Amino acid sequence: MTIDQTQIKANEIAHAVQALIPSDQVTSVEVVDDSAGSLLGGDVDADSSVVEWHVQRTISLREPANQLQLTDHAVDELGSSGWKVVYDGETTGAGGRWVELTRDADEGYQIRLQAGDDGSAPAVLSLAVTGPTVETDGDAAT
User: Which tens digits make up the pLDDT trace of 61-104?
Assistant: First the structure.
C-alpha cells in the first residue's frame, strides 16, 4: 500500500462520514488537514519514512444545532456498516462527545468524531480520519 492510496481511501471515508450529516444542517465545511504526517522521527525513524495520512474537517452547523443527535446518528449508521466504536467519551469537561471507530474491512483506518453539547456554540462537528502507517522513501511527510 502506498501513501497515495491511503490518501484516497482516507478522503473517501471522510466524504462518506460527512454525507451522514444532513446537508440542510450544514452551513460550511472547512478542510483543516489533508496531509501525510511522520509518525516517529528522531532516532527511531530518522528519515521520517513511516507516515500516515490525516484528514480533518470542521463541519459548521445551523444554530441552534443538535450536535449530539447528529453524532449519534452518524455513529449508528457507521455501526450498521461494520465500524466499531473503540472509544466513546465526553469531550473534556464540555458535555459533548468524542467517538473513535475502526473497521476490520478497512484495517488501519480510524474515524474520530467530536461534538459539543446540543445547543452549544459554535455549532460544529469535528471529523478526522487517519490512515494506516506506510513505509515511504522519506519524502511523503508534509
Answer: 998 889 999 999 999 999 999 999 999 988 666 678 999 999 98
On average, the pLDDT of the chain sits at: 88
Whole-number Å distance between alpha carbons of 117 and 72: 12
The 8-class DSSP code of residue 118 comes to T
Amino acid identity, residue 137? D
Q: What share of the chain is helix, strand, coil (3-state, %, to 5)?
A: 25, 35, 40
Q: How confident is the model at residue 37 (pLDDT cuts 50, 70, 90)?
A: confident
- Give the 3-state DSSP-derived string for 25-69, with helices as H, strands as E and coil as C: HEEEEEEEEEEEEECCCCCCCCCCCEEEEEEEEEEEECCCCCHHH
* CB of 18 closer than 8 Å to CB of 112: no
Cα distances from 87 to residues 12, 30, 100, in angstroms, run 22, 25, 5
Share of the chain above pLDDT 70, in %: 89
Q: What is the largest CA-CA distance in the chain?
A: 49
